Amino acid sequence: RATSRQGARPQRPLPQAFEPEPARRVDYELSPRQFNDVDPITSGIRVRRSARRRGNARH
Asked: Which end of the chain has fewer beta carbons closer than 10 Å to its terminal beta carbon, N or C?
């Protein structure tokens, strides 16, 4: 991907896709259960970390 971005193809949608990522991280950080259906990968990691801190109390 890095090589094609250097001039092979002017991929403009790539930087736009990276912008909503930080905003999403803040959202699923506040409510990981809500974003469980939207981003199971990112929310899953967040849930696992919080579960370990609380000692698997909520799970």
From this structure: N
Tell which phi-psi region holds residue 9, choosing left (phi > 0), alpha (psi between -120 and 50) or beta: beta
Q: Which domain holds residue 42?
A: 14-54
d(CA 17, CA 54): 33
CB 25 within 8 A of CB 42: yes
The total domain count for the chain is 1
3-state secondary structure 13-46: HHHHHHCHHHHHHHHHHHCCCHHHCCCHHHHHHH
